[in-house]
Design a protein that fits this description.
This protein is an alpha+beta fold. It is 46% helix and 20% strand. It has four helices and four strands. It has a four-stranded antiparallel sheet with strand order 1-2-4-3, with helices on one face. Strand 1 and strand 2 form a beta hairpin.
Amino acid sequence: EALQIVHGYVERLARTSHNSLHPAAHTGALPPVPGVFVKSTRSVFGPARALIKELQVGNGIWRVDMMKCPYHDTCVAYGCPELCCCFCDSDDISYTGLHPKLVWHRTKTLGRGDDRCDFCMKIMK
């Protein structure tokens, strides 16, 4: 029951985020979108914390592997690792379908039991 409540809440927040980002991606702001992700991940999960490995940044592509996730670590520490998938799902809801030429792709997440989160956002040319 708790999982359904948390998932519903996080999903509503993600849909609000998506609805806020969607117009920006259609108003000429598309080229800098992957760069925004570079800056924000460096700021929040920067090299000093050694949480991410930048695989490719630039030329309209943002690819990183997150080796440790604060959401996953917190959920595990509080004995509710199953809640972490809510946050993984929220990324997918927030970033999928923002623009026909902007692709959000991920095949692994720590919250879904994988060894890393592999994030990719790229502009299709």
